[in-house]
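**User:** Hello, beginner here. Are you able to go through the protein record under this note? It all follows right here:
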Amino acid sequence: MPVPIARKTLIYEWRRFLPAVAAVAFSGLLMTAQGALLLGIVSANSLYVSQSTADYWAGYPGTQSVELGRTVKARVLTSLYSEPLVSHIEPLLLGSGDWRAAGGNGGVGVTIIGIDTETGSAGLAKVVPAGLRSQLREPGAVVVDASDGDKLSTKPGDLAEVNGHAVRVVGLIDGLRGLGGVNVVGSLDTARVLDQTLPTDGAATYFLFDINTGDKSGGVIRRLNQRASVDRFEIWPSGRLASMSTSYMLFDSGAGIAFIFATLIAATIGALITSQTLMAAVAGALPQYATLRALGVPFGELRTIVAEQAAWVGVSGLIISGVLSLLIALIAQVYKVPFVLDGIVILLASLVVLVVAVLACLLSIHRLRQADPASLLR
């Protein structure tokens, strides 16, 4: 009996519970949006790795995040080429510069990325297609992310200057929008011309490479790590370097900590709104619960009714929240906002909202003791 009564009460008293459903939906949407923004922002810190296809990265020892890489000597190549199972070794350069559009108005700080332009190269292979990669072989040719076009006041075919050197934008890419700065991608030779602090003796910021499937026991990496202390380099699987970069942004940068704090505040506000609204809905139904007790319904069954109502309110609100979250994700995709609507984010937000609904239910149960049949006579 308790479950049918709970459902019928929700159907016939939907106006009473509608604010509670809206509160759950708003709370779930707030938590999901904050979590997706947080994940999108911190994930952007590992774009150089996630948008490349290399399995391993060799860089300066102790590097905490991919954008903080320092130059490693060319002798690292000797160690890599000494392993027969190591394949497809290529350098990647990270530099910096000052961008000035045609007309010389203002300046924008940019990160200069030098990649191998050969067919099948791994550096930024997911965002720089083969057609554009071949065009980058032209001296001074660069590409930028489409979302940064307005910031740089440029479009394909335009000329600009980086550190006083002329460049030509040969195309736009999608998927390399930086957190605060702007990424400018060119060939290795172009990068060295634009940022003359970059090494020209075969050294690089990173060396990207793969290992043939014959190395099932991981012996290649063990042997390379034994030589790492001598040649001053460190090797990371691409997934680990991406995770390190994300963790650095999340926990070691001021921006990441501030956003975590804002997310926790949003979750707290949403939880308070949800709990207070659900408790108010239960309090408003006290006369009906008193009537049920007058009809002989045990107090335990009344608690079951309230729990069932809270569950239905929570599920209904989360369905609405999910639809709205998908809509926001589509809007974010159109405007290139770093918004990663991951399944883990949705699951965690849903669990938090449901736990809050259950806790609000438990807090409301003690008010059922006020539902004494004598109250109907007052």
In short: The chain has 13 helices and nine strands. The CA atoms of residues 314 and 354 lie 6 Å apart. Residues 299-334 form the longest helix (36 residues).
